[in-house]
Amino acid sequence: MISEKAKAKINLTLDVLYKRPDGYHEVEMIMQTVDLSDHLQFEEREGNLISISCTVPYVPLDNRNLVYKAAELIKNRFGIDKGIHIHLEKNIPVAAGLAGGSSDAAAALRGLNRLWNLGLTLDELAELGAEIGSDVPFCVYGGTAIARGRGEQIHRLPAPAPLWVVLVKPQIAVSTADVYGNLSVSDIREHPDTISMVQALADGDPEEIAKQLKNVLETVTFRMHPEVEKIKWKMLRFGAMGALMSGSGPTVFAIADRETRAQRIYNGLRGFSKEVYLTRIL
Ligand code: ATP
After folding, report:
1. Does one domain contain both 26 and 105?
2. Would you say the CB of residue 100 lies under 6 angstroms from ligand 1?
3. Which residue is closest in CA terms to ligand 1's atom 9?
4. Neighbours of 145 (CB within 10 A)
5. Could you tell me the residue range of the domain that residue 19 belongs to?
């Protein structure tokens, strides 16, 4: 039996450049993995079937699960006539803007590549991952990267200085499709300065990283769910250097350069939300 970790991601920047003729939005975003992980265990089983078990009840176990899709893709593409059971220990909040499902799929690709000795490189796994979802290629690599296109074109960046991250997941569901549907690109008043964020990360300058945090989807999600914006302001009031919504939300994260500061934000927010996580950028 082998196991593999699937890390959550946050967006340090998220820009939407234009709506493409194919209906997708052209994005440019800086993605960062954080130390909050699902755990996958892989075990071969009799026959030729894929089966999944999971520690939480609200994740589908059939071919709607991105882990199932990853296993199916690998089996079909490489003609693997073996059964596989994958157990998923879910710690990343679901439908949160933290790419939990995508990261699980990426971990499944990496794990099965090892289990079945396929010898695929990370680049090859990322290319396969793009067939599952546009966040999967980034999750195959992890770390820090700029993602462009639909999110599937990855340019890796050096690891930034360590930072503390407090995540708050409000108890509401936000549909990514609705957020993009309510976005009017010509109405975006302020775009992230992606180049300056790359520089701030390279300099390891927490103040500047905090200053450059920007997500153009915030306005849309805040309008749909005002409580998400309230969490952001609470984080800043409890001493966050910066705070931002991740992806299309509803998770909001705060950054802090010192553990004591992060702990204060964590303690402060626990009074308002059931799902609060103290984690870090590694
Ligand atoms: P993203 O940031 O990429 O938009 P997300 O964090 O908002 O992702 P996920 O946690 O990936 O959202 O899950 C969204 C939906 O996908 C869930 O409601 C669930 O039904 C389905 N899903 C499929 N596979 C998984 C998985 N392995 N873990 C969690 N959800 C999954």
Report:
1. yes
2. yes
3. 95
4. 20
5. 2-157
